[in-house]
Design brief:
Elements lengths: L1 H22 L1 H35 L3 H5 L3 H8 L3 H12 L4 H11 L5 H8 L7 H12 L7 H22 L9 H9 L6 H28 L2 H9 L7 H10 L1 H8 L4 H7 L4 H11 L7 H25 L2
Helix pairs in contact: 1-2, 2-6, 2-11, 5-6, 6-7, 9-17, 11-16, 13-14, 15-17
């Protein structure tokens, strides 16, 4: 019954999307071009180099050396290995979806355990600081220097605190591995030449960045549904409804459309990041047994915590 429902739903979705593309070619072209431009202007220059370097670092077994200086703090605080600290660093510094990609690669290489991978995925896959400071804050008008520490804490402090919460409560985490499994996971090493690692890193990065571009274009095309809804019910295209629905499909284009009209709402949309972000995350961990449903549950909880934080901040301080 479930498979039948899924088949019917996907068939109707694809047929209706084909019909919308054919009946609204100019609008479809605009949405597809928007997704392509966002990918080329923002994703390729910011993520592609990091994808190459991260994969190369993992395959050459250099991750522990990179994490050495932060391990005494974060390793003990979050009870994670040096490889886990490396995932945490990449997830917060390089931004989404590098967190999920690095965790997936580390787990696939057996450098971290399944439980540690699930734990890190729960809070280390966030919007990157470059995107947040250079794009999100100017677009939403939240550029006041006096408010900046509070905004940065909401974006990155809450996930870090959430990580501590689930570390010491085990919320939504898989059961602990046996000692033997943990030792196998932590001590298995891959030995290959630098050239082989570089070739693999190049191929993996090209495939990864191309896949992300495809998701951004496809999710932007899904904006045809709210577009046709507004057209049928004579709703202006530049309304909050249109901007919000665009954010749910592909957040960057939606935020550009929303602008400064609803900054509080924009802040609440960042933890999950929309359908495009979820699809990209799924793509990064598709070769593992990490649960996408559990990842989404963690993101929902973080969104609720973020909403509470910004509500109190807005009510008492801003």
């Amino acid at each position: 019954m479930k498979s039948l429902f899924k088949k019917v739903f996907l068939t109707l979705l694809f047929l209706s999307l084909f019909a919308l593309i054919l009946s609204r070619p100019q609008v479809s072209l605009l949405y597809a071009a928007t997704g392509l431009k966002l990918w080329f202007d923002r994703m390729v220059p910011t993520l592609f180099p990091f994808m190459i370097l991260s994969t190369l670092t993992i395959r050459q077994n250099l991750t522990e050396a990179f994490a050495d200086f932060l391990y005494p703090i974060f390793g003990k605080l979050y009870r994670i290995s040096k490889n886990g600290v490396y995932c945490l660093m990449l997830g917060f510094l390089c931004g989404f979806p590098m967190g999920a990609r690095t965790i997936g690669e580390m787990y696939g290489q057996k450098k971290i355990s399944r439980r540690e991978a699930a734990f890190l995925l729960a809070f280390c896959n966030n919007i990157g600081p470059v995107y947040y400071i250079s794009f999100f804050l100017p677009v939403t008008g939240l550029t006041s220097l006096s408010d900046m520490p509070f905004l940065l804490f909401g974006m990155y402090g809450i996930p870090l605190l959430y990580g501590l919460l689930i570390r010491y409560t085990g919320l939504f985490l898989p059961k602990k591995e046996t000692d033997a499994d943990t030792l196998i996971n932590f001590h298995k090493k891959n030995h290959e030449s630098f050239q082989d690692s570089l070739d693999h890193a190049m191929e993996s990065a090209i495939a990864g960045i191309t896949t992300l571009g495809g998701y951004m274009i496809l999710c932007n095309l899904l904006n045809l549904y709210p577009y046709i809804f507004c057209e049928l019910f004579s709703i202006e295209q530049n309304t909050f409804f249109m901007a919000f629905s665009n954010c749910l499909f592909e957040i960057t284009g939606g935020l550009s459309l929303m602008g400064q009209t609803a900054p509080f709402c924009s802040l609440l949309l960042l933890p999950i990041g929309g359908l495009s972000c979820l699809a990209q995350t799924k793509s990064m961990i598709k070769n593992t047994d990490l649960s996408m449903i559990t990842y989404l549950l963690h993101k929902v909880v973080q969104t609720l915590l973020t909403a509470g934080y910004y509500f109190l901040l807005r009510f008492f301080l801003l």
